[in-house]
Amino acid sequence: MTELAASDLASIYPKPTPRVIAKARPEIDVHARKFIAMSPFCVLATSGTDGSVDASPRGGNPGFVNVAGPNQLLMPDRAGNNRIDSFKNIVEGSGFVQLIFFVPGIDETLRVGGKGKLSAEPDLLAAMEEFGKLPRAVLRVDVHEAYFHCGKALMRSKLWLKDTQVEREIFPSIGEIIHDQTSLGERETQAAVEARYKTQL
Q1: Which of 33, 93, 123, 152, CA to CA, is 20 to 30 A from 159?
Q2: Domain match, 117 and 192 both
């Protein structure tokens, strides 16, 4: 495969229109605020000191990420695999983060970029209780930029169409996959995994 250089890109892609450039806003406006309030899922991307990049799924009830102001988001951290790759990147690396928010049924997505900081202040944790549990930490994002992506990618993928959803049983459970990969832990069925998940939300 022949790799492209930066000089090649200009000959392949036209310049973005002024409207595309202008849509990147320096704060959370009324439309972004409403979208985040409807969003039950986002992807958090961070970068490490060695230049590595981590992308992590985050979810909760719609609006689980709180818009604390036009330039501040608060995201509670829920139980996961305890690798805390994202949080290590934030506290050890540059702290820069990117989030992409999804709303089921809407093809457009919202990207938010900024600087992340972590807190475990008791009052803040108490204010963000969900599923009957306190978060272990809260990520504060000081927002530098927010803009909406067009819906083409999700339209191409048909992500929200019921006809494209696969039957869960055609793919091994994560418990079976990890057991095959590592020979560690139990070879859990999908039903066992889902039952365990419900106790850990």
Answers
A1: 33
A2: no
